[in-house]
Amino acid sequence: MTNHITTKWLGGMAFESNNPSGLDLKIDAGPDSGGEGAGLRPKALMLSALAGCSGLDVASLIKKMKLEVDDFQIETIANLTDEHPKYYDKVMIEYHFHGSNLHEAKLQKTIDLSVEKYCGVMEMFRQFAELEIKTVFHHK
């Protein structure tokens, strides 16, 4: 199976990229790099892709395991190298669960399954970055 994405130059430093979902996203550099800051930054999008991919796994498993979670977010904190080409060499992925009836062991299992088995973007990141996974439970 292949993915085919078309990314079209809009002029200046702006681009528009399509997605199999049928939605388009705009990419632009910041004013410090000659852009208008009117779009998403490519490297940051990689972190959104990482969190989104793993988040979909976890959300699916929460549903499948009938776990009670009021709120759930993923904080992705990445270190960029100093030299060009700059890339993420260390990435911390923090999973935050909020609720009054959090089943910690089962929620941790959803993360472990995503990190170790299901998340393809996580596997791609493993090729170039050191990953640190952290889980935080916020009991109400």
UniProtKB/TrEMBL annotation:
<protein>
    <submittedName>
        <fullName>Putative redox protein</fullName>
    </submittedName>
</protein>
<dbReference type="InterPro" id="IPR036102">
    <property type="entry name" value="OsmC/Ohrsf"/>
</dbReference>
<dbReference type="InterPro" id="IPR003718">
    <property type="entry name" value="OsmC/Ohr_fam"/>
</dbReference>
<dbReference type="Pfam" id="PF02566">
    <property type="entry name" value="OsmC"/>
</dbReference>
<dbReference type="InterPro" id="IPR015946">
    <property type="entry name" value="KH_dom-like_a/b"/>
</dbReference>
